[in-house]
Amino acid sequence: MMRTVIGWIVVAIGTVLGAFAEAPTAMVGEAAPAFALPSVDGRAYSLADFRGSYVVLEWTNYDCPFVRKFYNAGAMQALQKELAEKGIIWLSICSSAPGKQGHFTADEWKKRIEKWQVAAKAVLLDADGKIGRTYQATNTPHMFVIDPNGVLIYAGALDDKPSADPKDIPEAKNYVRATLEAAWAGRPVETPSTKAYGCSVKY
Length: 203
Fold this sequence. Notes:
Layout: H1 2-22, E1 36-38, E2 44-46, E3 55-59, H2 65-72, H3 75-84, E4 89-94, H4 106-116, E5 122-125, H5 130-134, E6 139-140, E7 142-146, E8 152-156, H6 175-184, E9 199-200
Parallel strand pairs: 3-4, 4-5
Antiparallel strand pairs: 1-2, 3-7, 6-9, 7-8
């Protein structure tokens, strides 16, 4: 009987470890993991919908001071609009769990989006954190750039000034813009990954 129980335990552990081993993880230079998420407006969006376009993913939390640094200054919205005019898809993703900072009701989301005039293609909700963990999103903001072939070409911070002070924005190097400019010109991305800074994602 004891051997049978131990055998079941070993099989169960092996199954769990196998599931983790098979779970896709976002890696720069490799295909970005597929996902489908609901948006604040009730529509569903998948990464596959935008194959053939550059896609920017922004992990966000509107109550995080590092996120507010960019939105209060209008810098994030300006970048969203600038890139949208060039045909780039910007998807904001919130992985805050229910009861945690940054998790809002649908009505509250709409108020926040209107207040800051968010110009993302969509704000997507990842309340169970599955997609955030797949992409190893650790902070808000945490940025990812995916090329038209579906390959992840950048992951990390929005810029090189790890502060919550809007005064640092004008002098900062914007890694997302630099990544896209290099890709458009057919050059290698100079800095394909950096350490994200900001608030921790509230899984």
